[in-house]
From TrEMBL:
Residue stretches making up the Heparan sulfate-N-deacetylase N-terminal domain: 112-323
Keyword annotations of the record: Disulfide bond, Glycoprotein, Golgi apparatus, Hydrolase, Membrane, Multifunctional enzyme, Signal-anchor, Transferase, Transmembrane, Transmembrane helix
InterPro entries from the UniProt entry: Heparan_SO4_deacetylase_dom (IPR021930), HSNSD_N (IPR056793), NST/OST (IPR037359), P-loop_NTPase (IPR027417), Sulfotransferase_dom (IPR000863)
Ranges annotated as spanning the membrane: 48-64
Pfam families per UniProt: HSNSD-CE (PF12062), HSNSD_N (PF25119), Sulfotransfer_1 (PF00685)
Organism of provenance: Parthenolecanium corni
MF annotations from Gene Ontology: deacetylase activity; heparan sulfate N-sulfotransferase activity; hydrolase activity
Record's protein name: [heparan sulfate]-glucosamine N-sulfotransferase
Record: active site: K635 (for sulfotransferase activity)
Length: 906
């Protein structure tokens, strides 16, 4: 035993004893007092280290057993809390109210529309796309045109169509031909319109004057340390006083110089090529220049670089506001809600401990000073309460001890996705369990707000979820990132369905699995980029209502959420004049739809076009939607076409509606609010490999203002079929049709009285006139459809030919639809001399004609009414001729030529 205890390192045949023998060997008598010196003398270094390792391992196992935690979760647990490092002079001052000199509103009578004209080099240029995306994100109306030899029309009567002109390449403005330059400058002076220009990047470092201006440009420079001119009247959103330290993005900056009083720097920077070791004072170089208009009467703001630098995005928005005299100013109020999802859901070892809960409360107190009214909004699934370690369960208890310090919203009891519940009773049972849990633990149940796990059921809509929410919880508000799609975030919008307001939710960059900074994609550098001028910062700048979703695990572990939100709020205060505040979800939703009432109506998309939507969609059927639509208009022969199409063995129509018969009338009326699943129930399930074509016919679609947008959102690849006849004859036929159906107003007025009604006529008569005449403005309605669909998706049928030669029309239609093999209509259609139109020939013998209401005989239209309608539709028919020639799909029909001539009706 002594040789083992002495640890003779020279004996090569000596092997360390097994660990069990080391632990069992009686080194000490029970009566001895053992000290470190004795151990050191009687154990070899190797054995001593081995003993320490074993004791440490036993301690770990004992500690983990005491905590009732699994070893891997415990070993992975790290406590590397990040501290916000954002510092600026404004953070040490009391919050200031928005000062008046930042208000660009003019008291003068402005004659400009709040719209931006963006002149780009190509429709695919990078900076042009960035400008357009920034305008879309801030809901600023704009028109984008490629710079050509001719300018777009700038005025409408005595009003300017654009409040600001933006040149993606300022050189295009400087080198415009004399005619267009004088025309544009005259417009800007007369209507008080300003110009924003971006100096393009170059491959050479040159010094050159800007043509026609007392300005000198230095190109291809590397810069650092950007600062703003604090006294510039342009600044409104952007707060001056700080410096963006370090190199600025890119090596192709242009700086501007001028000694004319009209020019004032808006942003400065320093040359990055100077050595830091020298004590030489570096000159401030102007990177953004304001032209006050003293030189030639036109105000301009010229950027020496594009929008890659985050500060330029703010300055661009301020430039639009300033140059449009406040017409294009964005609201500076920002409402913020931070949802903490699944406050009790998480694996052992990753959940909140008591110290995490205290940190949550402390950070909330600091955020309240920056965001008045702020509280974290906690969501809960009660089934997972007390599912952590002993310490984490204490964290759960501490959260409930402070239940009044937070706001709360309900999740699902077992965190299951709602779309997986096909039985509404089971869905409600789950909700009632969570409600019981809330009542048992004193959690408020009347907030009227809820979130669905993984966005399931909110969009694409799962109807049982909305019904159960209202029935069990009285839910009035929810939110999602998925409408209309997750990406791009700038397009996220809200909608209202079944009386529940759906707010758009923004992305903060944290997800369930991003709990340690070293595992964050890109690490702390990438997270700080998002906070300091990047995606998270810009989300709050661009969106007046911000709903963020983070997860419970983001508040434990490395506490990334606490760091992220506190840092971005500080950065916002340093660099913007935004007024931050918070409010309960119901108030946020009411405010949102007051600001954007046009978003109340939903626009249903096809879940099959988005893999994310397909995963959280109930239906999972991608072959139950029409491939083409017969869009009308009314009284042009759409019912006859419907019957002809229904004969085709490879074409299937929708099932009949008990209210509107063969027409579903989904896209243009109240049926649209019944949702996508209601619409799809009218169509049979077709195998994806089948050659069967589904279609729908609703004649009222043609002139519906919202129909093209709605139809394209759901059926972007669908083909469109419309039938056109003389708009005068169509109006007269429609009038006779509603009279035959007992319309009381039409029965009380002659056709002449209806079509000649004016603004002084009774409202019911004016409404009847509009319903009668508006569908005949064919070019206007077709242009609306063509703003969503391509000309290749549109097929126009001459209604007179459909009546006199339907076989030819149907053959052409089959070619358009690319249906093969072609159906022989010549053996299935037969002319009825009594009805005076073609009827269906069934089984080769029996004839089936349309109902009694079709082919009805009535007195011909009087010549006076026809002449009136000729004049009324003259401009519309002329526009139709131009449209047909532009499309080049078919010759101008004879009825159109007749309507444009002086011939009388036949």
């Amino acid at each position: 035993m002594n040789e083992h205890r002495d640890g003779d390192r020279g004996s090569g045949d000596q092997q360390p004893p097994p660990i069990c023998r080391i632990l069992a060997r009686p080194y000490f008598k029970s009566s001895q007092i053992v000290n470190v010196t004795y151990v050191w003398r009687n154990l070899s270094v190797k054995r001593f280290i081995l003993l320490l390792f074993v004791l440490s391992l036993l301690s770990i196992f004992y500690y983990t057993k005491h905590l009732n935690s699994s070893l891997p979760g415990f070993l992975l647990r790290k406590r590397t809390y990040l501290k916000p490092s954002i510092q600026c002079s404004h953070l040490n001052r009391r919050p200031q109210m928005h000062i008046l000199e930042h208000n660009h509103r003019s008291s003068a009578r402005l004659r400009i529309d709040p719209k931006v004209l963006v002149l780009v080099e190509t429709m695919y240029s990078r900076l042009g796309r960035e400008i357009a995306e920034l305008l879309v994100h801030n809901r600023i109306k704009y028109r984008s045109d490629v710079v050509t030899k001719s300018l777009p029309v700038l005025t409408n009567l005595d009003k300017g169509k654009f409040g600001v002109i933006v040149f993606e390449n300022f050189n295009k403005y400087l080198h415009m031909d004399k005619w267009n330059r004088e025309l544009l400058d005259k417009y800007c002076r007369e209507y008080g319109v300003g110009i924003v220009g971006f100096i393009p990047r170059t491959d050479q470092r040159i010094i050159q004057p800007l043509r026609g201006f007392p300005l000198l440009a230095r190109t291809r420079q590397q810069l650092k340390d950007a600062t703003l001119n604090a006294v510039s009247p342009v600044l409104r959103l952007t707060r001056a006083g700080e410096t963006v330290w370090g190199p600025l993005p890119g090596d192709d900056w242009c700086t501007l110089e001028s000694n004319h009083s009209s020019y004032e720097p808006l942003e400065w920077a320093r040359n990055n090529s100077y050595s830091e070791e020298t004590n030489e004072v570096q000159a401030l170089l102007t990177t953004v220049m304001q032209d006050r208009g003293d030189y030639d009467g036109i105000q301009r703001i010229i950027f020496g670089s594009g929008l890659r630098f985050w500060l330029h995005r703010l300055l661009f928005l301020d430039s639009l506001s300033y140059l449009s005299h406040g017409q294009l100013s964005i609201n500076l109020d920002r409402l913020i809600l931070i949802d903490v999802d699944d406050i009790f859901v998480g694996e052992k070892g990753t959940r909140l401990r008591p110290d995490d809960v205290l940190a949550l409360l402390e950070t909330q107190d600091r955020l309240k000073k920056m965001v008045p009214g702020f509280k974290f909004n906690l969501g809960y699934s009660g089934k997972y309460f007390h599912h952590g370690t002993e310490e984490e369960n204490l964290g759960d208890d501490l959260i409930l001890e402070h239940v009044k310090n937070f706001t709360w919203f309900t999740h699902m009891w077992n965190h299951q996705q709602p779309h997986l519940y096909h039985n509404q009773t089971l869905l409600e049972t789950d909700m009632y369990q969570n409600k019981k849990f809330a009542k048992d633990y004193g959690i408020p149940t009347d907030c009227g707000y809820s979130i669905a796990p993984h966005h399931s059921g909110v969009y694409p809509v799962h109807e049982p979820l909305y019904s159960a929410w209202k029935r069990v919880w009285g839910i009035k508000v929810t939110s999602t990132e998925e409408y209309p799609h997750l990406r791009p975030a700038r397009l996220r919008r809200g909608f209202v369905h079944r009386g529940i307001m759906v707010l758009p939710r923004q992305t903060c960059g944290l997800f369930t699995h991003t709990i340690f900074i070293e595992r964050y994609p890109g690490g702390r550098v990438k997270l700080d980029e998002s906070i300091q001028g990047g995606e998270l910062f810009q989300s709050i700048v661009y969106n007046p209502i911000n709903v963020f979703m983070s997860h419970m695990s983001n508040y434990g572990n490395d506490r990334l959420a606490l760091y992220t939100f506190e840092s971005v709020m500080k950065f916002l205060q340093c660099w913007t004049n935004l007024r931050l505040s918070s409010a309960p979800p119901l108030q946020l939703a009411q405010k949102y739809f007051q600001m954007f009432p046009e978003e109340i109506d939903p626009v249903w998309g096809n879940p099959c076009d988005d893999p994310r939507h397909l995963k959280i969609w109930t239906r999972k059927s991608c072959d139950q939607l029409p491939r083409f639509l017969v869009i009308g208009p009314q009284k042009t022969g759409t019912t006859a076409l419907y019957s002809f199409l229904s004969m085709h063995p490879n074409i299937s129509s929708n099932l009949p509606s008990p209210e509107t018969f063969e027409e579903i009338q989904f896209f243009n009326g109240k049926n649209y609010y019944k949702g996508l699943e209601w619409y799809m129930d009218f169509f049979p399930v077709v195998n994806s490999t089948s050659t069967q074509f589904l279609f729908e016919k609703s004649a009222t679609y043609f002139d519906g203002e919202s129909v093209p947008k709605r139809a394209h959102a759901l059926l972007p690849s669908a083909k469109l079929i419309t039938i056109l006849i003389s708009p005068a004859k169509r109006a007269y036929s429609w009038y006779q049709h509603i009279r035959s159906h007992g319309d009381s107003i039409a029965l009380n007025y002659t056709f002449q009285e209806v079509i000649t009604a004016n603004d002084t006529s009774p409202k019911h008569l004016r409404d009847l006139r509009n319903r009668c005449l508006n569908p005949g403005k064919y070019a206007q309605h077709l242009e609306r459809w063509l703003s969503f669909y391509t000309p290749q998706q549109l097929h126009i049928i001459d209604g007179d030919q459909l009546r006199t030669n339907p076989v030819h029309v149907m053959d052409q239609l089959q070619k358009f639809l690319k249906i093969s093999p072609a159906f022989d209509y010549s053996s299935h259609l037969k002319y009825d001399p009594k009805k005076k139109f073609f009827c269906l020939l069934l089984n080769g013998t029996s004839v089936k004609c349309l109902g009694k209401s079709k082919g009805r005989l009535y007195k011909s239209m009087d010549e006076k009414s026809y002449k009136f309608l000729q004049r009324y539709y003259l401009s519309h028919n002329t526009a139709l001729v131009k449209l047909l020639k532009r499309l080049g799909s078919q010759p101008v029909p004879q009825w159109l030529k007749d309507d444009l001539s002086d011939t009388s009706p036949t």
